[in-house]
Design goal:
It is a single chain. 64% of the residues lie in helices and 8% in strands. It is mainly alpha-helical and 166 residues long. It has one domain. Strands 1-3-2 form a three-stranded mixed β-sheet, with helices on one face.
Length: 166
């Protein structure tokens, strides 16, 4: 009986070694979900919406069509937005405007675009620091790739607007 069990476990070792990193990612996601809940925000994993933080619903949405490691990095980024919102006054001091406080008229301005890109960068930066603070292991190279891809999409978005110096 014991030999049979050991043989079965032996055959599981390659699978465990291959999937162990996913176990760590799931545990890290669980830690972040608890962190967000302590701050009054729910975390939902779904396929319909892109990654985003809804302040109105107090909900972080994470898109599930990405791998679990990228879900972790996206969740860190969205938690970074929570941290930026807590220090809104400091952000307003350092950047031309706070994007969430913009009016419809201001949304086409360069100040707004710079603030959006700056906040995205700041959220990624704070997400990385949060991972360190909570002892969440991340692959820094892969995190940087996710951050760069996301921020570049905001540069492309900002470039699609007509130039407006206000």
């Amino acid at each position: 009986m014991v030999k049979k069990l050991l043989r079965q476990l032996y055959h599981l070792i390659p699978w465990i070694l291959k999937n162990d990193k996913h176990i760590v990612h799931y545990k890290s996601i669980e830690i972040l979900c608890e962190w967000a809940q302590e701050r009054g925000h729910d975390v939902q994993f779904q396929r319909e919406l892109p990654d985003q933080l809804s302040f109105d619903d107090k909900t972080i949405f994470i898109h599930t069509r990405q791998g679990v490691e990228n879900q972790l990095y996206s969740l860190l980024h969205e938690c970074g937005h929570l941290l930026v919102s807590v220090s809104q006054k400091g952000f307003e001091r350092d950047y031309p405007m706070y994007a969430y406080a913009a009016t419809k008229r201001q949304e086409g301005t360069n100040k707004y675009k710079v603030s959006v890109v700056a906040e995205e960068y700041e959220a990624w930066k704070r997400g990385r620091k949060l991972a360190e603070r909570l002892s969440i292991p991340i692959n820094k190279k892969k995190y940087d790739i996710a951050m760069t891809d996301a921020i570049m999409s905001y540069f492309r978005w900002a470039g699609n607007f007509a130039y407006n110096r206000i």
